[in-house]
Write a structure and sequence with these properties.
Chain lengths: ~110, ~230
């Protein structure tokens, strides 16, 4: 349902999502589930300019998700000890915050002129 | 309801007897074991056949892209004779545990696709997967050697087998050729010097107006023909 929440919100406020993990480790399941949820067609279609990149390594590094928002904010999630639900909920709440901040700024700028 | 009727109903309510041991403490009744259906047996046989027949097996994450994109990718891979297979993890995992591919087990989490092929056509496969911006290649196995994604990329950059064999043969013969040349150098040098000397002697003899017979070439170097 957190995946559905993300799908409903859309990725409009997001500029780039970079998912990095090492598939031979044991703690990557949540990161892979997150990737599965974020890279669905409907979710990606909400913002075609948002690039979702996958970095597959083999150096035993921890899985992490790096999200860059349109207004320069950055969200880094280290998925080694997080569940997919937590990651998706945090992602959704950040998107909501960013889009609220974005939409709160623009009427203020118009009113100030 | 009337008051008296209510009282009567309350008094005559049925209270079921409590069992001696509450059912939560007892073990649950064992469910009957479901026997394997034909489909499961078929899937198991197919998995075994896939791992038997194919030299190259690559695993990539089953990214939910649109079905047209996926079909296009499948078509491009099929042109190079690479098949795309998907099996339920529930049957794949026990099979892998039993076979020699135990180290591929951590890869099979979530949705996956198996790209299998008889010949290891890694370069074409990597090129096709690169056209999809999400490149979910996780790893795989070529000829009983487990490779990561970097390993696949390195493999694709290797030259062909004939070239590598030629290089190896050349490198090995280089050493023996060097030894051969070193051993042969001294006698060759000596022979060259002797030839040079003989030529010089012949020239010296032909230049002199000697009526006598020319000395044989292997006479002592400082013997002069006597002039009468």
């Amino acid at each position: 349902m957190a995946a559905a929440a993300v799908a409903r919100l859309g990725l409009r406020a997001v500029k780039e999502v970079r998912v990095q993990f090492c598939p031979f480790e044991n703690n990557v399941e949540s990161t892979r589930t997150f990737l599965q949820a974020v890279s669905r067609d409907k979710v990606r279609a909400t913002n075609l300019k948002c690039s979702v990149t996958v970095d597959v390594r083999h150096d035993g590094s921890e899985p992490r998700v790096d999200v860059l928002f349109g207004d320069g904010h950055r969200l880094v999630m280290r998925g080694a000890h997080l569940t997919a639900q937590e990651m998706l909920m945090a992602f959704a709440s950040h998107i909501r915050a960013r889009s609220a901040a974005g939409s709160g700024d623009t009427p203020g700028a118009d009113g100030g002129r | 309801m009337h008051f008296e009727r209510q009282k009567l109903m309350a008094v005559t309510e049925y209270i079921p007897p409590k069992p001696a041991i509450s059912p939560q403490c007892l073990a649950p009744p064992s469910k009957p074991v479901q026997e394997e259906t034909g489909l499961i047996r078929l899937i198991r046989r197919e998995i075994a056949a896939v791992f038997q027949n194919n030299r190259m097996i690559a695993i990539c994450q089953n990214i939910p892209m649109s079905s047209e994109d996926k079909l296009l990718m499948r078509h491009r891979l099929r042109k190079h004779n690479i098949l795309v297979k998907a099996f339920p993890n529930q049957f794949l995992k026990p099979f892998l545990e039993g076979s020699k591919y135990r180290n591929l087990l951590p890869l099979f989490v979530g949705h996956n696709l198996l790209l299998v092929s008889g010949e290891p056509k890694v370069r074409e496969m990597v090129r096709v997967l690169k056209s999809v911006p999400l490149l979910p290649l996780l790893g795989g196995c070529i000829d009983d050697t487990i490779l990561s994604r970097q390993g696949f990329i390195n493999y694709s950059k290797l030259p062909s087998l004939d070239l590598v064999q030629g290089e190896l043969v050349g490198g090995l013969t280089l050493l023996t050729a060097q030894t051969h040349a070193l051993l042969q150098r001294q006698p060759l040098h000596l022979t060259a010097l002797l030839d040079q000397y003989v030529r010089q002697q012949r020239q010296g003899h032909s230049a002199e107006p000697a009526p006598g017979q020319p000395d044989p070439p292997d006479s002592a170097p400082d013997s002069q023909p006597a002039c009468p």
